[in-house]
Amino acid sequence: MIYRFLRWYARCGIKFFYKNVFIYNQTKIDKNIPTIFSSNHPAGFYEAIILTTILKKPVYFLVRSDYVSIPALKWFFNIIKLLPIYRQTEGLNNVKKNNEVFSEINNSLKKNAFIGIYPEGTTKYQFKLNPIKKGISRIAIGALKADIPYMKIIPTGFNFSQPDKFRSFLNIFIGTELTLTSNEIINKKDSVAIRELTSEINSKMHDVNIAISNTEKQNIFSKLQIILINNQLRHNNFKTYSKNSALPKELKIFSQKIENMAPEQFSKLKKDTSQYFSILQKEKINDFSVINDKVNILNTVSLILGLPLFIIGVILNILPVIPALIIVSKYTKVYEYKAVLKVLIAQFLYAIYYFIVLITGFILFSYKGLILIFLPLAAWYSLKYFDLLTEYFNSIKLAQSSRKKEIQILRNQITKIIS
Prior knowledge:
alpha/beta, Glycerol-3-phosphate (1)-acyltransferase, 9 strands, nine-stranded mixed beta sheet, globular, 18 helices
């Protein structure tokens, strides 16, 4: 019961923070088959929470033991089913505790559980994969030897446009499953079976993840994917969680195009892209406004009439968010953890705040005070109003910009190259 509520509550936090979550699923996920999700690791432990909100079944994720050992988080992590993995740097005695964890994993897989693993072994926001470690193969083969006749490994790729930026985008590519049976490994030496499986997983992971080796090309891709995403948003009315969206796969294909692009063509693309986004930054305009003019009578009337409710919604809901932003800004030095900590701390403080507001409203105004139960709806309205307001004023700034024609020409040139 608590887990289901937290999963729903986490999903709400993701919807508030990210403007769109695009999900492409190549695999029909059967909840009655033991499955390991092999995920890249660009955003702290946020991938585990996000994947849990997508699937209809709990996912037991393996994380560094120092996360689970933090007293203030231990209870929460236990509920959301994060399992500790101990590293050699933590001492031999601690490493031996992994045997208990592996036993728990095997018992869970026998009950057709979902397990999540970060095979890279480290978190790093980048548009490429780190080498896949053998731990995931050892766990899978160990499970098959523990009387589990068959299982699946499903590669999963997370691509954050900007992990810690409010109202940015998230793309999730759930790839083609790898089916394993105990018969396949029964006559193989462990070392051989582990090496072969690691190679297969590595190949599958590259199928679903952005893999650009050159840092310069990674930086250009990070900008160009915004253009591709906005092109999709212009022609389609996506829900916040867009399941079965082709966009994650299209971005993967586009990344391969960037990776293999001829030097002279990439040089031209780099020049135009850098110039385009430099102008947007100076003019304080976003890319979406270049292709979607939000200034019309309907939006103007909506913004005018909705302004009072927007202000009320912000005033009533912003208080618990501010401390979360301050805490993360002051104490979180690792970029990859900023987004997940911003959202989780804000949601934790908001839950406390919401409870206090409801009690206070009831004490002061009796049953009339229970109207405050709709506080989150006011927050959701304010969020949608904020999105429209941002796009509206960006459209005005573009219309008034002396470089409007130059901006549009540059974008058209870029679009022709990347199409």
